TrEMBL record:
Keywords annotated in UniProt: Hydrolase, Metal-binding
Originating species: Deinococcus aetherius
CDD domains given in the database record: MPP_YkuE_C
PANTHER family: PHOSPHODIESTERASE YAEI, TRANSMEMBRANE PROTEIN WITH METALLOPHOSPHOESTERASE DOMAIN-RELATED
Protein name: Metallophosphoesterase
Residue span, Calcineurin-like phosphoesterase domain: 56-231
Length: 301
């Protein structure tokens, strides 16, 4: 898999885009800050071929716990997810956005409150890797020699909080449902085939932080869930997103899209913010997906 270069979201990049937009200056004030913290629950339905019994999936991504997000925000998101009584909770990466070496200790008690009979699973994102020290701002962008050990340590801490991180691997959640999760597209080593190996004839869900994996899917997938883009985070009427951190521009910015082999994918707008603590016309979301097999979908019509 080739990993195309795409400039990350930075304060300078976002602000330059806003200033170039003229009318977008209003997003720099209190309105943009207020929109950054007012989230909603998006409810979607989809058919998942091979699924024999419906499954309700709560999808939370891009928490960015750190400078702009504290335990109170995470608590509200967890409460909203639990209120939907999901069968499965999936977390799409960029959990933490902190200097490498710092601890996200306040995050774990909140994530530990998530409840779902099929479990809570997640994948790493690019900001998680920055927080491991894979690209350390305190070292001029160079990697900390212990970044892999820090990743392993945090993987264990997430596990103690009830969150299983999938790193190019998958799990049979039921005899009719397979979940695969891939490493981060920008800073990890994603292996899509490894994440899907073992699925057999089960319905398949694939979890990837970054939607730029979608053109490289080695085979059809029932449904892929992604985050990373924040929906552009700051959107303007008639223009769309000021900046989308993707090689494909607005193509995978948010919502329902298609990957290789016609694979349907949902790209969440996420919950936290990156670069600047602002959003405009791009509400943060907890997503609740009700997935049914083809037989149930036919009955619903």
């Amino acid at each position: 898999m080739t990993r195309p270069n795409s400039a990350p979201v930075t304060r300078r990049r976002v602000l330059r885009g806003l200033l170039g937009g003229g009318a977008a200056l209003g997003a720099l004030g209190g309105v943009g800050a207020a929109q950054a913290y007012a989230f909603g629950v998006t409810r979607e339905r989809a058919t998942l071929p091979g699924l024999r019994t419906p499954v309700r999936v709560a999808f939370l991504t891009d928490l960015h716990y750190g400078l702009y997000v504290g335990p109170g925000s995470v608590r509200a998101w967890v409460d909203a997810a639990n209120a939907e009584r999901p069968d499965l909770v999936l977390l799409g990466g960029d959990f933490i956005d902190i200097p490498s070496g710092d601890s996200p200790a306040g995050l774990f008690p909140e994530l530990a409150r998530l409840r779902a009979p099929l479990g809570v699973y997640g994948v790493w994102g690019n900001h998680d890797y920055d927080s491991f020290g894979r690209r350390d701002s305190r070292r001029g962008g160079r990697a900390r020699p212990d970044w892999e050990a820090r990743r392993d340590s945090l993987t264990a801490e997430f596990a103690r909080a009830g969150v299983t991180l999938l790193l190019n691997t998958g799990r049979a959640l039921r005899d009719d449902l397979w979940l695969g999760g891939v490493d981060d597209f920008w800073q990890g080593r994603p292996d899509l085939a490894a994440a899907l190996a073992g699925a057999g004839d089960r319905a398949t869900l694939l979890l990837s932080h970054n939607p730029d994996v979608l053109p490289d899917l080695p085979a059809p997938v029932g449904l892929t869930l992604c985050g990373h883009t924040h929906g552009g985070q700051i959107r303007l009427p008639l223009v769309g997103a000021v900046h989308v951190p993707s090689r494909y521009g607005q193509r995978y910015a948010m919502g329902w899209v298609r990957g290789a082999h016609g694979t349907p994918a949902y790209v969440s707008r996420g919950l936290g913010t990156s670069g600047v603590p602002l959003r405009n016309l791009c509400e943060p979301e907890v997503t609740l997906l009700t997935l049914t097999g083809e037989a149930e979908a036919t009955l619903d019509k």
